């Protein structure tokens, strides 16, 4: 098998900063799903965990964020490609991609 054929299961956890955004949270989540689909991923589950307060506030103007989780299957290079696509996205404050295998 080549690396293009290898697929793994992943879980992506994101904290969204929607302070300056006019989009609804559902629209931002759909946009993130479309980004994963553009990377040849199959999104099996998306979960909006809601707005949560941070235990340690780094920025007084940003004390809480919207937590979102995606479960998906994709090629082995997906975590790197997903991080690179979202690197300049101002609505994504934090991103953690873990292998679910």
Structure commentary:
The chain has helices at 25-38, 78-86, and strands at residues 7-16, 42-53, 64-75, 92-99. By secondary structure, it is α+β, with helices and mostly antiparallel strands. It has a four-stranded antiparallel β-sheet with strand order 2-3-1-4, covered by helices on one side. It is globular. The longest helix has 14 residues, at 25-38. It has one domain (7-99): 2-Layer Sandwich (Alpha-Beta Plaits).
Summarize the structure.
With 101 residues, the protein is an alpha+beta fold. The protein is 23% helix and 42% strand. The two termini are 18 Å apart.
- The number of strands is 4
- Give the % helix: 10-25%
Strand order within the widest beta sheet: 2-3-1-4
The CATH C-level name is: Alpha Beta
Which oligomerization state do the chains in this entry correspond to? single chain
> CA-to-CA gap between the ends?
18 Å
Indicate the overall shape.
globular
As for the number of domains, it is 1
User: How many strands, what sense, and barrel or not for the largest sheet?
Assistant: 4 strands, antiparallel
Radius of gyration: 14 Å
Question: Any idea of the CATH topology?
Answer: Alpha-Beta Plaits
CATH-defined architecture = 2-Layer Sandwich
SS content category: alpha+beta
Q: Report the total helices.
A: 2
- Residues in β-strands, percent: 35-45%
Fourth-level CATH superfamily: Ribosomal protein S6/Translation elongation factor EF1B
